[in-house]
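Quick start: read one record
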Amino acid sequence: MSTHRVALVASARYPIREPFPGGLEAHTWQLATRLRERGHRVTVFGGAGSDPALDVHEMAPLPPLSSHARSDVSMPADWFLAEHHAYLSLMLDLAAPDAPYDVVHNNSLHYLPVAMGPSVPRPVLTTLHTPPTPWLESAIRLPRARSGPRFAAVSRSTAQQWRGLVPDVRVVRNGVDTAAWPAGPGGGTPVWSGRIVPEKGPVEAIRAARAAGTGLRLAGPRPDRRWFDAEVAPLLGGDISWVGHLDHAALARLVGSASVAVVTPCWDEPYGLVVAEALACGTPVAGVARGALPELLDDTCGVLAAPGDAAGLAAAIHAAARLDRAAVRRRAERFCSVAAMVDGYEALYDEIAA
């Protein structure tokens, strides 16, 4: 493998630091760190307040707008305009002929790195972390955007959703550092972890745990506090609790202590980093068969229920608790390692930079 100078484009909206706002930020931190350990020169472009160890180049903040601009009836939300300005500025900088990179790896969810990728004189690789969204799909539909940058997807199911637009998409599954997610003793109350938002299904997980009579500990950030207070908080109490937004070490201990990890996507989950984290801890998964979960789990490490089947998910919680934790851990080591993920990206960098 050759070593490369990599411009890694991350989220402009959320900082890349613990406790991570979501799986994308955790993935970006892991990828940047591991690539550097292998000798690559990685420059991360991301949001303010990121982990100082990553030496993130903060993207350009939105400059003050005139009163005339702000009074315009079409004025979008500040966060939307700030993201637009940040990525527009960055892509114009990367388009400079003397930009000191061999590869630009777009790890964001924004449309501008895709739409403006053909203007960059270096190879551009975009990882597709989501199913098609209107903004991203419209950018990829531009003929030059499809024929210029290369694309990877984080799972076979995500790749399949994009193949109508991007036929040549490489699958590079996300990975976790299995040493940083050590096998735990299990036996404790089941756990649900992730961003506490509707599409992740915390309400569905709580209802299934109540039906199973097992209790549930929820961990993760609450980006929409109003929704949390209205929909999740009233369901808490007794053996159902929210334990907070935990840092990496505390979350690994929590997941490792659980008899089961409950994973309840209400959308086509592109990958499900929480699945890989649970498997690394030796904690079997009771999940909903959507998105990438059926390709990450087999009958040695998880039990799946059909979407919307609360009784089936309750039964899955009991069935998953009987699985062998050593076999669960082995699945993570073979199928979900960060080393395999970095191998995949190194191969792609070599290919597109050749």
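The mean pLDDT is 95.
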